[in-house]
Amino acid sequence: MCGIVGAVVAAGDVLPEVLTGLRTLEYRGYDSAGVAVLAGGLLEVRRKSGRISALEAELADRRLPSALQAVGHTRWATHGKPADRNAHPHRDQDNQVVVVHNGIIENFVELRAELEKEGVAFSSETDTEVIANLLARQLRATGDLHAALLGAIDQLHGAYALVAMAVGHEGEMVAARRDSPLVLGVGAGGRFAASDMPALLHLTRDFLFLENGETCVFTAESHRIFDAAGKLVSRDLAKCDWTPEQAEKGGYPHFMLKEIEEQPDVLARTAFDRFRDSTGDVTFEDGFQLTDEDLRRAARLRFMAMGTSFHAALLGQQMTAELARLPGETLNASEFLYSPRLAEETAITVIISQSGETADSLRAMREVKERGGTVIGICNVQGSTLAREADHLILTHCGPEVGVASTKAFVGQLTALYLLAIRIGRAREELDLDKGLALLRDLRAVRTQLDPLFEPETHVAIRAAADFLAPKSSCLFLGRGLLFPVALEGALKLKEISYIHAEGYPAGEMKHGPIALIDTDFPVVVVATPGRAYKKTLSNMEEVKARGGRLLAVACREDEKVAALADFILPVPSVPELLAPIVNVVPLQLLAYETALVLGCDIDQPRNLAKSVTVE
Ligand code: G6P
């Protein structure tokens, strides 16, 4: 999705800071990039389709003057194909106003027609150029940049986060947000706006989060936030505990590999401060206010999310059913609006999102709240929309996740869901103290049990499997029970970054269709660690083998039965069944990574994908 940076400083040249911010936003997925500066009473723009390096080459050829204020943008095409003319920033036709924008303006066709009637000539196919011209028209009428912004956004239907500046308003910038993320960074020598916090960590760790419908006026020394009605809002700064280093590769060839290897720490950071081995109580921070009584009263739990978080949601439902005996359902958040309306008063809905900005998940959250339901958000980004709007919050402490293919967020989410299931189980007296303590001890032990997955021996095994998989065009992933969502996640990782077609199936379903695909050499990845479905999974492996299919199995190191059947073993340590998904997903993430590496794919920024999908 598009990324935005805007910055105004009291001294120096701000452009390099904006470019650093843009590079941090690369992870969101983009096809073009651009910057604009306001200096000496002139707006100047440079923009290029392709990578930021193409923009930098353009900037080396056609230098921009030193400036105290600038905007920058990485574009993920929605209106108009990737091309220089469609790249942001966009100006009005008189070159008086410049805008960067993330979102979709739904009524842009009507607005554009209206402006064209007034004689405005457009040079791009974007909805954003419409905003620039609306803003310029308002500015001519009012002479006040903030009033012009209010007048312009009043005409917009749809989602936007935008930052603008204008000739004649040097030193001033304006920003607005509705349904697309935008944060304001407050530093010693300047004020900054961006799509997310990592883009500004090199400048500040003090942030303000704009709420939906709010606008902001900022200079290097001051900022004012206004609500949707135009009333001044006072808001405290929030300190971000992420460091700039966490958003860097730190010597790894790819963010994805770094993030996979961070998973033991993610588990520890997300869990270990939240329980005591002595008392067995799980406590979340102040953002989580549900009492034991509230948890006892709930008649069902609903889990909703998208992508990798959806796979975590499927597992959350199973964990809570098992540990708290609470019935549940899991919905893809984008499907919620079309599902039957059930009583919300007796339900609790858990919305899971790494970014806290996924449009479908936010839409589902707001709909649940409107219907009178209670929402627990599980989220990795402090200050994100989900974190702010959910009734109750459990933060996963993964640190910034940069690789587009989500990895450590999944392990953070499973850890949080496991704790939540224990918390509910204890509140509902389905778990006694001893059982609760044992479950928490199991979780603590997993932290070190993950270590062998990063040793050379495991790497050799995974690399051999990846070499085998790389030339294939299609692949099945199978698992049963708790291991079915792991199969789904393994398939998602492979297709996301290697572009090999991969499908996750419940192993029992294989005979009802997918088996038709299996012929000699067809690869089938089976998640086959011990548990209630183990024997049946072995039978499914036999069925694949009988048809000449090739088996890659996630299995315990010492498992001879699986070893006798499989062509490749992705070895994992043996852990309690409820925690096996946390362990089993790791070799599948590594398998996808190694396969993409063999194929020479762009691992951290796979084609067409965006890290955070902020449109429905
Ligand atoms: C995008 C990302 C996925 C992610 C999904 C949900 O599709 O590419 O990696 O799982 O969004 O994101 P969220 O931030 O809500 O977890």
Structure write-up:
With 616 residues, this protein is an alpha/beta fold. The protein is built from 18 helices and 25 strands. The chain folds into 3 domains: 2-247, Aminohydrolase, N-terminal nucleophile (Ntn) domain (Glutamine Phosphoribosylpyrophosphate, subunit 1, domain 1, 4-Layer Sandwich), CATH 3.60.20.10; 255-449, Rossmann fold, CATH 3.40.50.10490; 452-599, Rossmann fold (3-Layer(aba) Sandwich), CATH 3.40.50. Strands 3-2-4-1-10-9-11-15 form an 8-stranded antiparallel beta sheet, with helices on one face. A hairpin with a 6-residue loop joins strand 7 and strand 8. The chain binds 6-O-phosphono-alpha-D-glucopyranose (G6P).
Key phrases:
eight-stranded antiparallel sheet; Rossmann fold; binds 6-O-phosphono-alpha-D-glucopyranose; Glutamine Phosphoribosylpyrophosphate, subunit 1, domain 1; 616 residues; 3 domains; alpha/beta; single chain; globular; seven-stranded antiparallel sheet
Q: Considering DSSP H and I runs of 4 or more, what fraction of the residues is helical? A: 25-40%
CATH topology of the largest domain: Glutamine Phosphoribosylpyrophosphate, subunit 1, domain 1
User: Biggest sheet: strands, sense, closure?
Assistant: 8 strands, antiparallel
3D shape:
globular
The strands making up the biggest β-sheet line up spatially as 3-2-4-1-10-9-11-15
- Rounded to the nearest angstrom, the radius of gyration is 25 Å
State the CATH superfamily name of the largest domain: Aminohydrolase, N-terminal nucleophile (Ntn) domain
